[in-house]
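lol ok so funny story. i was supposed to be doing the assay writeup but got distracted and ended up predicting the structure for this chain instead. priorities right. anyway since i did it might as well share w the group, maybe its usefull for someone
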Amino acid sequence: MYATEFSRKVFGDTSRLQRWLDVEAALAASQADVGTLPREIADAIGQAASLERLDLERVAAEIRHTGHSLMALIVALQHACEDDAGQFVHYGATTQDIQDTAQALEMRDCLDEAERLLLSISRRLVPLGREHIATVMTGRTHAQPALPITFGLKVGSWLDELQRAHQRMRQVRSTALVVQLFGGVGSMAAFGESADSLVNRFAERLGLGAPKMAWHASRDRVMDYVTTMAMLAATCARIADEIRTLSRPELGELVIGWHFGKIGSSTMPHKRNPEECEQIVVLARLAAAQVPVALQGMVVEHERDSRELRTEWSSVADVSHYSLTALSILDDVLADLDVDSDAMASNAADTAADLATEQLMLLLVRHLGKQSAYEVVYEAAQAAKSNGRSLREELLLSERNRLSAEEIDAALDPAGYIGRAPEIAGEMIGQADAWLEALAAEEAR
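and the output, tada:
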């Protein structure tokens, strides 16, 4: 409930070590491409760069002995190479070149998975919103009845936010998914005249961007990723918490999926708790907690130090675990979510007087002006709540009221005051549908 099988695989020790090996192999192959290394040397390094050929227990022991995160793996790879090829492993690079590049690959994989889940969620919401584009319900502010809306308008709001989340994910790909290959202090001195072409070829081989200079000490790229993923989890939490609230028996407007054998309480057999929705909120809070951690990692001394790396290895992994899990759980919740439109209509009818006050005030404006109209409806509404009479009765008793009983009755119908809610919802749902179709076509190409 805190990580997915996918995220565990990405950030597992063996996956991370193999990714470092992959980057070392790509470095050697790129150096062969630009003529820095003989091709046979690069090929030998590439063939040896597999955990299956290394003694992982010895690597772990050497990491503990040396206190260095990468050197033991480099030495093991060197020994696994045939002939003298191992002498050219890690040629010209610094440790952070390899590890930053590998982390960019980890972030890319997580963004790919996050995008897949976000689109799955959106594809569930489009037909849900379209089906209920005109389903009248109580709109609430500050947990109190406010004005009538439609459920389609609420779903449209979710889809609107998800599209912006997707835009941020696409943007962060251009800022965060880049290689690092600039040597010890960013001068590229070890790479000689082939430095620029080497970085470009290295990036091309790995499918990442090629920055113009080192970002060893400039960690805003990673901060972009952590913030984007945390915001994505928060969007999931907003949707999940609304589902949780609307599923309360007192409201009953949404019904969360349940199966026999699922247990809500160890002592109260009747409970069907919205555990999944609650867990999404928990995950969003944990994801948000990674943002200040990553922000602190932006403070780096001189050309680089290890403080930001060791901070990021925690915050990048954790925010990825939490955000991907939030997306995955929300996708499952929406797959089994039911809408009780009768409950929505019933609740709106029960709160019709509260939902009608703005319309009643605007009707009175024609006779009294805005401020006086507000006063009349305010006095009637507050009196009705205090003395047990209806708002209708109070308005008809008011000496300042200028509305007929028929006009008041018409205003008390929630369905008559939903404004452009169906049109707004329809426009947003149509936009989301077109967006999903365009992405599907893009993927097909």
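The mean pLDDT is 94. The longest strand covers residues 144-150.
back to the writeup now i swear
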